[in-house]
């Protein structure tokens, strides 16, 4: 464990967040990962992240480790950081995120697969869009980027970083057939953004399944 004195408190917050996502049905099998940026005085520890291959319904503080800015574990010989750590790191680097939450919900996997060729899902007309920071009306159009899935995390994170650095305000993206990444300045904001996107993807899935054109473009 890192020398950072508040690490256990941060780890506990991540555990509670991961268990919440599991209860919501967004973390099947041992999938999904969650992280929070550590303050600069925790260096070389850069962020705390869930370890690979853990059931998020029963995750414990012992399953959280610190990694440096290259994703290398800090004093955590037993634990392996999530394979998707490079994607978390790019969001801290490029988007100014303070916490990153990644889920594998059914609507996220399904709709991103359907939107793979368009490269984005447009969300507009929904009241809950106001749950995203900086949005105060439903009369807005939010573009949720969709990237092709890949097992080559370094190549994927380079591609995502190049694309997201051109976005103005953006709090989420999808990997096709895989899941959703959402982030915020801290864990509460990231949770709110995640919940907004998951809810709106559920709305969008209902509209897609039932063919009703309302609120879609
Ligand atoms: Zn994943």
Structure in a nutshell:
With 217 residues, this protein is of the alpha+beta class. It has helices at 7-23, 85-95, 106-114, 153-164, 187-210, and strands at 33-37, 47-50, 64-67, 99-103, 120-124, 141-147, 172-175, 179-184.
What does this structure look like?
This protein has an eight-stranded mixed beta sheet, with helices on both faces. Helix 4 links the parallel strand 6 (141-147) and strand 7. The protein has helices at residues 7-23, 85-95, 106-114, 153-164, 187-210; strands spanning 33-37, 47-50, 64-67, 99-103, 120-124, 141-147, 172-175, 179-184. It has one domain (7-210): 3-Layer(aba) Sandwich (L-fuculose-1-phosphate Aldolase). Helices cover 34% and strands 18% of the residues. The chain is α+β, with helices and mostly antiparallel strands and 217 residues long. It contains five helices and eight strands; from the N terminus they run αβββαβαββαββα. The mean pLDDT is 91. The site of zinc ion has 6 residues, from loops.
List the helices and strands and how they pair.
Blueprint: H1 7-23, E1 33-37, E2 47-50, E3 64-67, H2 85-95, E4 99-103, H3 106-114, E5 120-124, E6 141-147, H4 153-164, E7 172-175, E8 179-184, H5 187-210
Parallel strand pairs: 6-7
Antiparallel strand pairs: 1-2, 1-4, 2-3, 4-8, 5-6, 7-8
Helix pairs in contact: 2-4, 3-5
Question: Major sheet, described briefly?
Answer: 8 strands, mixed
- CATH topological fold name: L-fuculose-1-phosphate Aldolase
CATH class: Alpha Beta
As laid out across the biggest beta sheet, the strand order is: 3-2-1-4-8-7-6-5
Instruction: Determine Rg (CA atoms, Å).
Output: 17 Å
Average pLDDT value?
91
Report the CATH superfamily: Class II aldolase/adducin N-terminal domain
Total of helices: 5
Bound molecules: zinc ion
CATH architecture: 3-Layer(aba) Sandwich
Taking pLDDT < 50 over at least 5 consecutive residues as the criterion, the unreliable ranges are: none
Number of domains: 1
Structural class based on helices, strands and sheet pairing: alpha+beta
Can you write the helix and strand succession as a string? HEEEHEHEEHEEH
DSSP summary, beta strand count: 8
| Strand content range | 15-25%
What gap, in angstroms, lies between the N and C termini? 48 Å
